[in-house]
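4.2 Preliminary Data

To establish feasibility before requesting continued support, the project team ran the inverse folding procedure on a target of 138 residues. The structure was first converted into the token representation described in Section 3, and no sequence information of any kind was made available to the design step. The complete token record follows.
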């Protein structure tokens, strides 16, 4: 069995931002030479998410509105966590959106259903953060 590891780095210009990383992940599968296996993609920070869904701007806006209703950013003092930081809402939003995805690799390609794409969702941006890609297989 072979294994391949790569980190992708992000520095979102806004507090919350969604990045389509599907091509970056497929590029690493290509570099790995693995034709059959599994690909793990996970956020390496507790205020960021990796998820799979459609690359549709309206849906991305819906995520923002939905998450803001469930865990509003302000007022900051509504959260016990907010003392030295103001990112309690980002921790909660990450819990809702998830930490990682695992996708099958078949014939050297991400084995997706229709419209599926991989996204990195920064929930507390304006600083360097990373995503881990770990590919295993033959």
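Position-by-position output of the design step:
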């Amino acid at each position: 069995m072979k294994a391949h590891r790569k980190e992708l780095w992000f520095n979102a210009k806004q507090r919350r931002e969604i990045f389509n990383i599907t091509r970056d992940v497929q590029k690493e599968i290509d570099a790995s030479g693995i034709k059959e296996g599994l690909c793990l993609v996970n956020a390496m920070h507790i205020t960021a998410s990796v998820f799979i869904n459609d690359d549709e701007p309206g849906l991305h806006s819906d995520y923002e509105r939905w998450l803001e209703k469930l865990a509003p950013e302000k007022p900051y003092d509504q959260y016990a966590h907010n003392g030295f930081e103001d990112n309690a809402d980002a921790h909660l939003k990450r819990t809702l959106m998830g930490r990682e995805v695992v996708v099958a690799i078949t014939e050297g390609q991400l084995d997706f259903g229709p419209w599926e794409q991989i996204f990195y969702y920064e929930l507390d941006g304006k600083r360097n953060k990373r995503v881990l890609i770990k590919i295993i297989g033959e």
